[in-house]
Amino acid sequence: MSSVQNDNLTDGMHVMVEALKKNGVDTIYGVVGIPITDLARHAQEEGIRYIGFRHEQSAGNAAAISGYLTKKPGICLTVSAPGFLNGLTALANATVNGFPMIQISGSSDRAIIDLQQGDYEELDQMNIAKPFAKAAYRINKPEDIAIGLARAIRAATSGRPGGVYLDVTTELLGSVIDKVEAEKTLFKVENPAPKSIPSSDSIIKALNLLSSAKKPLVLLGKGAAYSQADELIKKFLDETGIPFLPMSMAKGLLPDNHPQCAAAARSFVLENADTVMLIGARLNWLLGHGKGKHWNPDVRFIQLEIDPKEIDSNRPIEAPVVGDIESSMELLVNGLEKVSIKVDSSWIENIEKDKEINIDKMAAKLNTITVPLNYYNALKIVKEVVDSHKDIYLVNEGANTLDDTRNVINMYYPRRRLDCGTWGVMGVGMGFAIGAAITSNKPILAIEGDSAFGFSGMEIETICRYKLPITIVVFNNGGIYRGDHENLGGGTDPSPTTLMATARYDKLIEAFGGTPYNVETQEELKDAITKGIESLKPTLINCKIDPKTGTESGHITSLNPKTAIKN
d(Cα 63, Cα 428) in Å, to the nearest integer? Predict the structure, then answer.
């Protein structure tokens, strides 16, 4: 604990807590230990909620998703060296996905580290963090704490949001400063993410391009959802009648059952659209880089993007609109009075025909009865429950579990679907679920593959400790992708992709006082999910899935190289 006894003095730990309070931080996610344990205690004492995790990566993921949901940087607190490195994965993921987050990590004695003399958990953390974060800073003096935090907040939230690393040394945390002088340094950051207004010329060019289009399409990315410009985007789409295609975390920005939603005709609209407006979406691997057989080779692009370096990253952008999405959409909506945008009726009719074909194909999959269950007939039940609990937050990760859930489950409200995002990483599930529960105070449903759940499964203890309203469904097919692969060497070890099909993940939550279910039928699954959600209590459902069900690497099999040598 702090050794400061004089009422006229304070220390770095207390100043840091006061700076966080001054800037409206009400929650910290982390794992305590040397040298930040007392910092967490003081924060809790001063009314900041501290959520303690079992692993720093999950704490970082919770902070990141909190940032995504609130547009304010989520705070992750870690110990030095290994704890810092554990949190760094989440920080890097936040940066790639555009989630505002600040990782505050304690670090060892700078003088010893710089001479590499072998201090406790010696590591040059700030310089290691730089390639993986949007920015990285170190605070060495207590009178600089407020400035250091301000720089981190601005870096995390302005422009394209991202992860920021803030290094606080052991010496800083224990350093003593006059309390009155310390109070003079404290301040609230004003307008940390100022608007970025696009040029009027770019707005005119974008609208003129749309007005000349025969087969326009609006593609919504998670940046559009993050912007919280929901009403402006809805008004633009309603007034123009342009069909839209939501990326995974943009689902629900407008309801998935909206008549203009082209999600069920994804391949058709990408292959045939002559003009595509990207709103908060990047032409990265998730969209085939805007190239190849899945795209109309003559398509013309409009891109709403706050980072000018993203323009022309894969394809020439004919009408770049560089600015924040809310400002850009406001100007585009206002500009509709000056142009005539009419969508060709045949374009809409052809989309509807393709949607009907694909919906019928999906219905056949959903309505097929199998024993054991497969992904689709299990997800039919999840869909029915979500359709009757439309405001629920859905966390989703896995390979087939991720891909099939995204295709089957409709979302009805923005920022309700939370998944692995741009990197496609596994292990975000429990951190995202906890962060969403703490931030929203609403029920969370996490649909997890058995492999994906294993990355962060111990956080069910955290869920039970804080009594969070999280229901977890583990689709257990006994493997990574599928559970029926064989050891090609003929030995007794399981294959590289084999897990335990007999595993009872529900027993884990029972050990921590949560509610367990083990289900094998649609009726059992529906009853368990409904009871779990409505109980508002920690619940885990082990759902047995046929080990033969699943495609290697899910929808991205083409990215998984196979050996070229055949025996």
Answer: 11
The stretches in the chain having pLDDT less than 70 are 1-5, 564-567
State residue 567's pLDDT score. 53
Q: Which helix (H) or strand (E) holds 29?
A: strand 27-30
Half-sphere exposure of 269 (CA within 13 A, CB side): 29
- What per-residue confidence (pLDDT) applies to 1? 45
Distances (CA, A) of 266 to 104, 217, 262, 286, 355: 41, 11, 6, 13, 9
Give, as one character, the DSSP assignment of residue 71: S
Q: What contacts 155, CB < 8 A, 6 or more positions away?
A: 134, 135, 162, 164
CA 206 to chain centre: 29
- C-alpha–C-alpha distance, residues 172 and 515, integer Å: 44
What does the pLDDT read at residue 226?
Answer: 98
User: How many C-beta neighbours within 10 Å does residue 191 have?
Assistant: 9
- 475 near 449, Cβ under 8 Å? yes
> Which are the contacts of 204, defined by CB distance < 8 A and separation ≥ 6?
335
Distance CA 436, CA 78 (A): 20
Token pair belonging to 371: 């024993």
- Cβ atoms of 60 and 139 within 8 Å: the answer is no
pTM: predicted TM-score of the whole model, two decimal places: 0.96
Q: How many C-beta neighbours within 10 Å does residue 49 have? A: 13
d(CA 239, CA 400): 37
The predicted pLDDT at position 550 comes to 86
